[in-house]
Each structure stands twice: as C-alpha cells, then as structure tokens.
Amino acid sequence: MPADAAEEIRGPVHGTAPVPLSVLDLVTVGAGRTATDALRTSVDIARLAEQRGFHRYWVAEHHSMPGVASSSPAVILAHLAAHTDRIRLGSGGVMLPNHAPLVIAEQFGTLEAMAPGRVDLGLGRAPGTDGATAAALRRTDRLNEGADDFPQQLAELIRFLDDDFPDGHPYRRIHAVPGPVQATSPGGVQSPHRPPVWLLGSSGFSARLAGSLGLPFAFAHHFSAQNTVPALDLYRESFRPSAVLDAPYALIGVSALATDDEREARRQVLAAALNMVRLRTGRPGLVPTPEEAEAYDFSPMEQEFVASWNSNVVHGTPDEVRSGLDDLQKRTGADELMLTANAHGGDVRLRSYELIADAYGLPTPA
C-alpha cells in the first residue's frame, strides 16, 4: 500500500457534520421507471455529492432483484468516474465469493487507472441475492464453501493487487493488469495508488477479520441495526495496527431520507418498507409508489415488520434527520456515516441528499 493509504481512507469533516458523510447507492428502480432512469439519477446524485462535500460514493452488488439495478458495481463505477472529478468511488460492496479474486483485481485496477487515487474496494462475503441465484453466479450449489473460504479469497485478492505472491506459489507469474507489474517492465512507471480494501459486514465475522488485518470496516446498520454496536465493539477490540491503518476506522451504512414535509417522508419510507416486505417474502419487485403503499392492506405480521424496519430509518424534515444522524453517531462512535436514501422517485432521493447537505451547512457549489 502507498504511504498515504490512511489518508485515502479517512475523510474530511465539513460544516457541522459530526463525521465525514458519504453516499451508498442501491440504484433503486421505482414502478413506472426504468434502469436507465435509475442510473441517470445515480449520476445526478454523485455530482451533487461531489459538489456538496460528501466524501465517497459507493454502489452495492445485488442480483435478481427487479428494484435494484446494481448487479455490476465496476461497470457503474466506471460510468460515475466519467461524470465526476474528485469524489471517492467504490463498492459497498463486491461480494467476493461470487467472483474469482483475479477478476476483481483486474476490474479495480482498471478503475484505479481511470480515476487515480479515488477508488475504494469494499468486499462482502454474502451472495447479495438468494441461494439459487448465487448458485447460478458461482456455477456451484456448495455456497457455504464460498463464505468459509472468504479469508483465503481475500488474501489471494490482496496478493494480486500488490503483485507479491512469493516464489514457488502457483500464481507467482500471474499478474493483475493494470497493476504493479507494469512498473517492472522496461520503461514502466508505477502508479502511487492502489485501491484501499474495506471489509463489509452485518455480523461479527468480518468485524473480527477486518480488525485482525488492520483494515477499515463498514457495517450494514441499515439492515442489521441490532448488531451494529456489538460488531463495532468487536472490530475495535480485534484491531491490530497495519501498514494501512494505525487505528480503527469504521463507517456505518444508514437509511436516511429527508423531505421538505414530515408527512411526505412517512409516505416515502412506507413505500420502501413495502418493497422490503415483498423482498423478504419472496416477491421482489420494483419500488412501489407511495400511493400504492398507502392503499396496500398490510397483515398484522407485515405491520410489525414495517414498524421494526422503519424504526431504523432516519427520516423526516432536514432538522429531524440531522438530529437522528447526530444521535446515531454518538451512540455508535462511527467514524463516518454513509447515507442511503430509499424512495420510489429519483427526484426524492436527490432532494434528500440536498436537504441533508443544507442541514449540516456543507459546501455549496461555486
């Protein structure tokens, strides 16, 4: 890793925000909208995030979900790199067991060449989908092997990124290109950057692994809120200083939606919750409209799920969202908040990030 690796991980704090703020984009597709619409919204949000001082912009790998158009993070990140200049771009995350480590090293080496010094490689060990789809992705039905082998896959990927397999290793003469090997060729010049590796998690496994390796850690608070504090505690307790970091650095993903009107926020998060109800009951689809959600006849069990789910969504007016985020950061001690806005319409998501930026007094475009 380059000497300034930690500086590529830690971000600046702007305005009155308690910690750096970032964006997690699920590239959601609403009913009546297309994937093209969703990806255009992603460009708009990335540009806004860059202008307003958000630190990084990550996209997540999901498969076989009609309402989520982020099955190919590397492709989307290349597109976003062409439309931005400064903001960090990364995966939140690539699901490593779905891929050969060499392929990921090549993809993110290419992204690094496109946007030098701006690329993060966040890695998860879950499939990002259901078991049948994971089996189709991996060409095997032995899915537990992929998760169990994650530490070995991670070590292999990092070796490819650093091009430092030891003598005698079967991959010693195999190189991820673009990558460090180009510096050893006649006339070669080595880039000073290499994508920092982050570990993602929703339980303790990756928290402990990230800590033991001295890597930055990202926790999925937005869908595993009950595990957030225990996982962050485990990460900090397990942390060992490394060439990457001399102290723990943890961000948490947070569902946050600000609207000009409190009632509208409730309507929007109800629609997002209905989308989760359908996903959790094997009926994934496009994100419904608020009108569809208001007309939906929730069963008692579904009502209980919605109440539990929305209790962890920070939503309301900009002041309410700011207060909720401040309280969450104090409770968890997170070093960075990565906000994901789930709503039917791209305009609502874009407006939410704008309102949150205003609430914290983040920089305004020149």
Number of helices: 14
Please list the strands of the largest sheet in the order they lie side by side: 1-2-3-4-5-6-7-9
Structural class, from secondary structure content?
alpha/beta
**Count of strand segments:** 9
Order of helices and strands: HEHEHEHEHHHEHEHEHHHEHEH
Overall mean pLDDT stands at 93
Give the CA-CA distance, first to last residue.
34 Å
Percent range for β-strand residues = 5-15%
The Rg value, from CA coordinates, equals 20 Å
Largest sheet: 8 strands, parallel, barrel
- Dominant shape: globular
Show unreliable segments.
none
Q: Classify the helix fraction into a percent range.
A: 40-55%
Describe the structure.
This protein has 14 helices and 9 strands. By secondary structure, it is an alpha/beta fold. Strand 1, helix 2 (35-52) and strand 2 form a beta-alpha-beta unit.
Blueprint (SSEs and pairs):
Elements: H1 5-9, E1 21-25, H2 35-52, E2 56-59, H3 73-81, E3 88-95, H4 101-114, E4 119-124, H5 131-138, H6 143-148, H7 150-162, E5 197-201, H8 204-213, E6 217-219, H9 228-238, E7 250-258, H10 262-280, H11 290-295, H12 300-310, E8 314-316, H13 318-332, E9 336-340, H14 346-359
Parallel strand pairs: 1-2, 1-9, 2-3, 3-4, 4-5, 5-6, 6-7, 7-8, 7-9
Helix pairs in contact: 2-14, 3-4, 4-7, 8-9, 10-12, 13-14
Task: Give a short synopsis of this structure.
It is built from 14 helices and 9 strands. By secondary structure, it is of the alpha/beta class. An 8-stranded parallel beta barrel has the order 1-2-3-4-5-6-7-9, surrounded by 8 helices.
